[in-house]
Design a protein that fits this description.
CATH topology: D-Maltodextrin-Binding Protein, domain 2
Radius of gyration: 21 Å
Number of helices: 15
Structural class: alpha/beta
Distance between the termini: 53 Å
Number of strands: 9
Shape: globular
Mean pLDDT: 92
Order of helices and strands: HEHEHEHHHHEEHEHEHEHHEHHH
Helix content: 40-55%
CATH class: Alpha Beta
């Protein structure tokens, strides 16, 4: 039998995809919410995912993005995903822990990963797949489609330079509405203050908090340089975010559509990885050009020691996987 050429095979596969969907009468707009503005690196790569899935399905599946926390704070959006009102959300692992996925607490532990590259190596492998399966198996109406692994989160301060752990004492630091983030800042000696992302700028501007923490891209696109004079590169956490799909809506897709979504998200997330590492360096330079002073820690070991009790508290039952992640 004569073998079909690779080019003809791809054409045939695409036609088969379209034919199945025409028969099913399926046209779908995937609604994706995110906390970051349209100009952020994360949202731009969510838009790339939309372009990829529209191309792959001949426009039968498209994406609508709701950026800048317009759909509300993370816990609210997560509930909308559970109900099917929103299809996809880039959910911080710590929030999934608060929603009942026990293993997600591991991924939010401070100083768990040595670098973003280290996190990618772990999470795109067998260990990462197990974490995603834990979410799928939790029976809380989520289906994971992959990861967004952001660069390191760092401290932003309104008017105080922080270089040592002692400098953190008594500072009010905004954190996401998450038990582990609260515990992390408290371990550093700060007064952790949970505030929705959409209210962070005003809280910094009015002095409700003395500082916040996030990636430097987030700092720049939200123009926190207008209300913060200092960044401290403590790199306490890498933002590990499973992309969660509404299980109610996921089950509406046929198998070929589901695979197309998974494939397109995989391409978009890896494109983000390549961009984000380079962008993180450029983001630091942009912040400096806007008059922000960026400093390193003078006593990194003291910060590492301060969070050791969190590994005992939140890592209980997961000691083996933590050891594998950290190469111990």
């Amino acid at each position: 039998m004569k073998r079909m050429s690779p080019c003809l095979f791809l054409i045939a596969a695409s036609m088969a995809f379209l034919f199945q969907n025409v028969l099913a009468g399926t046209q779908y707009v995937i609604k994706i919410a995110d906390s970051q503005p349209e100009t952020s690196a994360v949202v731009q790569h969510i838009r790339l995912f939309g372009d990829l899935i529209a191309e792959k399905t001949g426009g039968l599946i498209t994406v609508q993005i709701f950026p800048a926390a317009m759909m509300g704070p993370a816990p609210t959006v997560m509930q909308q995903v559970q109900m099917g009102a929103i299809d996809v959300y880039r959910c911080d692992a710590s929030v999934l822990y608060d929603f009942g996925v026990g293993s997600m607490k591991v991924l939010s532990l401070p100083y768990l990963f040595a670098s973003k590259e280290d996190a990618q190596k772990i999470l795109y492998g067998e260990i990462g797949q197990k974490f995603l399966k834990d979410v799928d198996d939790a029976e809380i109406n989520y289906k994971t489609i992959g990861w967004i692994i952001e660069p390191s989160r760092n401290l932003f301060l309104r008017n105080k330079r922080v270089t040592s752990l002692a400098d953190m004492k008594g500072l009010k630091i905004r954190v996401p509405e998450s038990e582990i983030f609260l515990a992390t800042m408290e371990a550093f000696g700060a007064a952790a203050t949970p505030i929705p992302m959409g209210e962070v700028y005003t809280s910094l501007q009015t002095g409700v908090v003395d500082g916040a923490e996030n990636t430097i891209d987030t700092f720049n696109v939200n123009r926190f340089d207008e209300v913060c004079k200092y960044i401290t590169l403590d790199q306490h956490n890498f933002n590990i975010c499973p992309m969660v799909f509404s299980k109610i809506n996921w089950d509406k897709f046929i198998a070929v559509e589901q695979q197309a979504i998974l494939d397109c998200w995989d391409r978009a997330s890896h494109a983000y990885d390549s961009y984000a590492i380079k962008n993180d360096v450029e983001a630091r330079e942009l912040a400096k050009s806007r008059g922000v002073e960026i400093t390193e820690l003078s006593d990194k070991q003291a910060w590492l020691d301060a969070v050791k009790p969190l590994f005992a508290k939140f890592g209980s039952g997961y000691e083996d996987v933590i050891a594998k992640i950290q190469g111990k």
